[in-house]
Amino acid sequence: MRVVLVVEQLRRRVPGGVGRYATGLLQGLAAMTDAGEAVPDVVLYASRAPAGDDPLAAYGLEVISSHLPGPALTRAWDHGLVDAPRRADLVHCVSLASPPSPLAPLVLMCHDLAWRQVPDTFPRRGRRWHEAAFHRARRRATRFVVPSEPVGRALIDAGVAPASIVVIAHGADHLPAPDRASATALLGRLGVEGDYLLSVGTLEPRKNLARLVEAYGRARPRFPATWPLVVVGPSGWGGIAPDGADAGAVAGVIPAGPVDDATLAALYERARLLAYVPLTEGFGFPPVEAMRQCIPVVSSPLPSLGGAGLIVDPMDVGEIADGLVRAATDDDARAELITAGTERTRDLTWTTSARAHVALWESVR
After folding, report:
1. Can you tell me the distance from the alpha carbon of 101 to that of 135, in angstroms, rounded to the nearest whole number?
2. 317 touches 328 (CB < 8 A)
3. 2-171+349-364 CATH fold
4. DSSP string covering 268-288, please?
5. What is the Cα–Cα distance from 222 to 8, expressed in whole angstroms?
6. Which of 135, 236, 282, 286 is the S-S candidate for 202 at Cβ 3.0 to 4.6 Å?
């Protein structure tokens, strides 16, 4: 079986959670191959390759690159002007950005319906595109993959046939070994000594950073030391930059900008906790990344938690502040959260996720 994997997100400046899913799936497929398991012939499909080194070449798979740049290719898909590659038994899209596939079944990952659930956190143009893309996906897709039961229920409420929805959880084992030297150097440049709290994610309105920063400001006087809040992540949309988000308005909030995955792993393992309170997520990668590094998590009620984090209302600044204090200072609560997180992430592997994808592909080709 020849599967064309549409990975346009990996050509984007900020791949985000969609990009994490794409790379995690490829990681799982590679692990299956290394273990001698049967894996389809996977081909990567994306927009025009950048000048110089092509990051898609690192996966050791055949790559089909359009002659169109990313924005033009996506628009061409939207208007039905460019189809998926024809030499395919199945086409799998890692997001709602999907080409027509007249000759092969189309499987599509729908990460969430956030543009409907929290519309004010999306630009107007983004809402229009997501809504139109969702309607195109309903026409084009043979199956929808979702990362959690809540997303599946949201799709059913939106009119998608239940029989066409398959829940496949993401993995949590994608971060490499921690680069402790890099993390130490970064923290030194930021002036961070000793313990700190950590926030991770693309800086955009849906991530709710403003309320988290306010909550941290309330919690900070209750800590036994002036532990800073280190904010890691690239800027998304909404005018929130890595050195902004009003972070400088609250003492102790230190923007770090984006970091590579090995540095991120080391930042997790040295932090007292991860604070992650987005308004909505279909899964939520940072909590499971933190749990695998054995630190407590204070989070919105997200599917990835599996009940293992200290759950707070993302709209309640006082509740977030109380959660930060408890997870940072209560030794018994910290131990319980770390144990629960370790148990939660033990079986969340990309190999397991990849096996479920392969089984789905084989069932619909």
Report:
1. 15
2. no
3. Rossmann fold (3.40.50)
4. HHHSSEEEE--S--SS-HHHH
5. 46
6. 236
What are 59's two structure tokens? Answer: 């996966």
Place of tokens 């996720």: 353
pLDDT digits (tens, 9 = 90+) for 69-84: 999 999 999 999 999 9
For tokens 């909505």, name the residue: 280
**Residue 247 dihedral angles phi and psi, to the nearest 5°:** -60, -40
pLDDT digits (tens, 9 = 90+) for 17-63: 999 999 999 999 999 999 999 999 999 999 999 888 888 999 999 99
Contact 229, 196 (CB under 8 A): yes
Amino acid identity, position 183: A
How far apart are the C-alpha atoms of 170 and 25, rounded to whole Å? 8
| Single-letter amino acid code for the residue at 273 | L
Q: Annotate 102-134 with b (16+ C-beta within 10 A) or e (fewer).
A: eebbbbbbbbbbbbbebeebbeeeebebbeebb
Query: pTM to 2 decimals?
Result: 0.94
Contacts (Cβ under 8 Å, ≥6 apart) of 196: 187, 227, 228, 229, 230, 254, 270, 271, 272
Q: Which helix (H) or strand (E) holds 95?
A: none
Structure tokens at 117: 């659930």
Could you identify the residue written with the tokens 């990952």? 109
Q: Tell me the pLDDT tens digit for each residue of 121-162.
A: 999 999 999 999 999 999 999 999 999 999 999 999 999 999
User: Which residues have a Cβ under 8 Å from the Cβ of 134 and sit 6 or more positions away?
Assistant: 96, 110, 113, 158
Which residues in 288-323 are b (16+ Cβ under 10 Å) and which e? bbbbbbebbbbbbbbbbbbebbbbbebeebebbbbb
Q: Which residue has the tokens 């590579």?
A: 260
Query: Could you tell me the two tokens for 242?
Result: 């890595």
The pair of three-digit structure tokens given for residue 75, joined into one six-digit string: 């628009």
- Assign residue 194 a region (left: φ > 0; alpha: ψ between -120 and 50; beta: otherwise): left
Q: Where are the domains of the chain?
A: 2-171+349-364, 180-345
Q: What is the CATH number of domain 180-345?
A: 3.40.50.2000
For the chain, helix (H) and strand (E) counts, in that order, are 12, 13
